[in-house]
Each structure stands twice: as structure tokens, then as C-alpha cells.
Write a structure and sequence with these properties.
With 99 residues, the chain is an alpha+beta fold. The chain has a single domain, classed as Alpha-Beta Plaits (2-Layer Sandwich). 40% of the residues lie in helices and 30% in strands. The protein starts with a strand and ends with a helix.
């Protein structure tokens, strides 16, 4: 399972507040199959197969355009570990065990 950290920034919205867009992105993610996700204060973490992650990223990248954003900048960071099963929780647990 891969883990992606995604930040979608709508540009040309007429306001500095992005929370309505972030809320809409979360609603879009609720409809996506094959993923788990978690909103953080700065990004969204998405876990699943690469195919499902990329489908989810495409959906959330497109969403601000449907809400009249004129431009969208999306940053993606992917951790794709294949030697063993990985998850955000497993990664955090591993660090906590070492503290």
C-alpha cells in the first residue's frame, strides 16, 4: 500500500480563506473507493494502491475548478514501500516505539 501526502491550492478564488475548498475536497474523497484518508492542518494523507491514490488525486485536483477557481496548484509526495505492508499508523507507531 502506498501513502501520499497531497496539498491542493486553489488560486484566483477572490478570498484568502480556503476552508470551503478543503471541505469540498474531503467530500470528494468520501466518494473515492479503495482509499483511506486523513485531513491534517496542512495537507491530506491518502493511503491505498497507486491506481486508487492517483484517481483520488485527480478528483480532488479537479474539484476546485468546479467551484470557480481559475487555477489549481497540487503538490504530491508519495511513499511506496513494497518490502512490507506500510501505513501512516504503522510509521508513527515505529517512531513511538523508539522514543
Amino acid at each position: 500500500m502506498a501513502i501520499a501526502e497531497v496539498t491542493v491550492i486553489p488560486i484566483g478564488t477572490g478570498t484568502t480563506s480556503l476552508s470551503p475548498y478543503v471541505a469540498e475536497l474531503q467530500r470528494v474523497l468520501e466518494k473515492q473507493e479503495g482509499i483511506q484518508y486523513q485531513l491534517t492542518s496542512m495537507s491530506t494523507i491518502i493511503e491505498g494502491s497507486l491506481d486508487h491514490i492517483f484517481a483520488a488525486i485527480r478528483a480532488i485536483h479537479e474539484a476546485p475548478f468546479q467551484s470557480d477557481a481559475q487555477r489549481v496548484s497540487t503538490s504530491i509526495k508519495i511513499d511506496d514501500r513494497r518490502d512490507k505492508i506500510s501505513s501512516s499508523e504503522q510509521k508513527l507507531r515505529s517512531v513511538r516505539e523508539k522514543l
